[in-house]
Amino acid sequence: MPRPPWNERYAAEAPPPWDTGTPDPLLVGMVESRAILPGRTLEVGCGTGTNAVFLAERGFDVLGVDIAPLAIERARERAKGRCRFETADFLATVPAGGPFAFVFDRGCFHAFDEADERERFARNVAAALGEGGVWLSLVGSTEGPPREAGPPRRSARDIANAVEPWLEIVELRAAEFGASGEDFRSWVCLARRRAMPAQASTRR
């Protein structure tokens, strides 16, 4: 499928709506509550590096990847060496430097309309994680009133169908994209690398 012109969005005069310059409150809460602990970290769809720098300042060893070269250029300028950034298509390849203890994406997983692409995303997350590693994904939700703008909407079923074959879902709860300037409903999906394969669904 054709990809949106991500680099062109960063080249526009106004920053894209997701590039707020403020660490995501949901990520901040998970880190401050110690639900996510410092370790080798991969941020997928890192944009201009706001969340990566936040994590690096709190002891995480961060590699951020994004498909937009202009975003990576700006992330490197922002980080001033506190973390590393690479231009990469996460669907095409798992970045080197793993295994990672933590993988994070804010609104990258939900950008893919096709179920097989979301499943490939989750599979690549699983391949990037080390033993006991966790993935935090913030996903646009099908909840809330109709709207013409904002993040793509994915159902809980969309998430489970993509994630469950590859990772164990630890938590899936409703929240909001608070740093966007508008209160868009979202899912917080926390999953970890499987110690054993998912078992088949049963019926009586």
Helix content: 25-40%
- Average pLDDT for all residues: 92
- Name the helix and strand elements from N-terminus to C-terminus, one letter apiece: HHEHEHEEHEHEE
| Spatial strand sequence of the major β-sheet | 3-2-1-4-5-7-6
Regions with little confidence, pLDDT below 50 for 5+ residues: none
**Strand count:** 7
Outline, from the CA principal axes? globular
Q: What's the tally of helices?
A: 6
The total domain count is 1
CATH superfamily: Vaccinia Virus protein VP39
Structure description:
The chain is α/β, with parallel strands linked by helices. The protein has one domain: Vaccinia Virus protein VP39 (Rossmann fold). It is 27% helix and 27% strand. It has helices at 6-11, 25-32, 50-57, 69-79, 115-128, 156-163; strands spanning 40-44, 61-66, 84-87, 100-106, 129-140, 167-177, 184-193. The chain has a seven-stranded mixed β-sheet with strand order 3-2-1-4-5-7-6, with helices on both faces. Helix 5 (115-128) crosses helix 6 (156-163). The mean pLDDT is 92.
How are the elements arranged and paired?
Elements: H1 6-11, H2 25-32, E1 40-44, H3 50-57, E2 61-66, H4 69-79, E3 84-87, E4 100-106, H5 115-128, E5 129-140, H6 156-163, E6 167-177, E7 184-193
Parallel strand pairs: 1-2, 1-4, 2-3, 4-5
Antiparallel strand pairs: 5-7, 6-7
Helix pairs in contact: 5-6
